[in-house]
Amino acid sequence: MKRTKQEAINFAVFRLPALSVNEGVARAAVAAFCAQMAPTATELSDIKCAVSEAVTNCVVHAYRERAGHFTVTVLLFPDRRVRIAVRDRGCGIPDVKKAREPLFTTDAAGERSGMGFTVMESFMDKLTVRSVPGRGTLVVMEKQFGGGAKRT
């Protein structure tokens, strides 16, 4: 089911420069905003980890040749579900299916594990990745507070 801002009981949108220091800012802001839904400590920790991975992907991969930014949108729904979208306008991902494979990385130096999408997927109930080379990437993650079936 496609959820919209109009259905949300509350939402937040913020934009930050794609700098490594802002990974912590985004993680903390999303966690603070989600706190109004009274999540468990584990649920909040899961969300923080997934947001960290999504933002780190923007910082490390999206803007190789230029400065850029990322936008985070958080929607809270009456059924105690949160949807978090992280968008960049960077280089994009040529093959999303391949990029979602565990251990796949474009990091020739070998400093990255290639587990970012796998980690996001393990901590959230649903993960969607859309990307257009040269135009950017959108990562959308959902989690049901209070448990719920995991959807892929």
Written description of the protein model:
The protein is of the alpha+beta class. The chain has a single domain (10-144), classed as Heat Shock Protein 90. It is 32% helix and 26% strand. It has four helices and five strands; from the N terminus they run βααββααββ. It has a five-stranded antiparallel sheet with strand order 1-2-3-5-4, covered by helices on one side. Strand 2 (69-76) and strand 3 form a beta hairpin. The two termini are 13 Å apart.
Summarize the structure.
This protein has 152 residues and is of the alpha+beta class. The protein is 32% helix and 26% strand.
Search tags:
152 residues; alpha+beta; Heat Shock Protein 90; five-stranded antiparallel β-sheet; globular; disordered C terminus
Architecture blueprint of SSEs:
Layout: E1 10-17, H1 21-34, H2 41-62, E2 69-76, E3 81-88, H3 96-99, H4 116-123, E4 126-132, E5 136-144
Antiparallel strand pairs: 1-2, 2-3, 3-5, 4-5
Helix pairs in contact: 1-2, 2-4
What is the string of SSEs from the N terminus onward? EHHEEHHEE
- The CATH topology name reads Heat Shock Protein 90
What is the total domain count? 1
Major sheet: arrangement of strands: 1-2-3-5-4
Mean pLDDT: 86
Distance between the termini: 13 Å
CATH class: Alpha Beta
Count of individual beta strands: 5
Helix-strand makeup class: alpha+beta
What shape does the CA trace take?
Answer: globular
